[in-house]
């Protein structure tokens, strides 16, 4: 198998895994999976969609000079025009207002790409500050 075929298969399998994870996350949040797929056209930044119930993790690595370390990034996300926002089932203006500003996935990616890498500051930029 050539490199492009391996990457294609890898991408396909990671997308299947992401779908399975979203099924479990939807269930744990009490959200119908079809709502998640409809609202996000599949996956999203889960911290925003869950209105802060699921926290984004910060990537950390421990390295040493004895072995070479390599990271491979595979992103799973919605279409660029999908609006990423807290799920309507998790938002109540009085009890649990939206914690994040709605934006397209493209706007969110642009925000990430056009700002310095600094932990989870990108999420802080889209958080609603009361």
Automatic annotation (TrEMBL):
It comes from the Eukaryota. Keywords: Dioxygenase, Iron, Metal-binding, Oxidoreductase. InterPro entries: IPNS-like_FE2OG_OXY, IPNS-like_sf, Plant_2OG-oxidoreductases. GO terms for molecular function: dioxygenase activity; metal ion binding. Pfam families: 2OG-FeII_Oxy (PF03171). Residues 41-74 form the Isopenicillin N synthase-like Fe(2+) 2OG dioxygenase domain. This is Oxoglutarate/iron-dependent dioxygenase.
């Amino acid at each position: 198998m050539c490199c492009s075929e391996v990457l294609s298969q890898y991408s396909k399998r990671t997308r299947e895994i992401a779908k399975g994870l979203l099924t479990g996350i939807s269930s744990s949040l009490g959200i119908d999976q079809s709502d998640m797929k409809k609202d996000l056209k599949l996956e999203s930044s889960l911290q925003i969609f869950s209105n802060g119930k699921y926290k984004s993790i910060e990537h950390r690595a421990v390295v040493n000079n004895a072995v070479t370390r390599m990271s491979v990034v595979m992103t799973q996300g919605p279409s660029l025009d999908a609006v990423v926002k807290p799920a309507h089932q998790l938002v109540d203006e009085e009890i649990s207002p939206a914690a994040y500003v709605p934006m397209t996935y493209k706007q969110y990616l642009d925000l990430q790409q056009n700002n310095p890498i600094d932990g989870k500051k990108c999420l802080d930029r889209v958080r609603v500050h009361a």
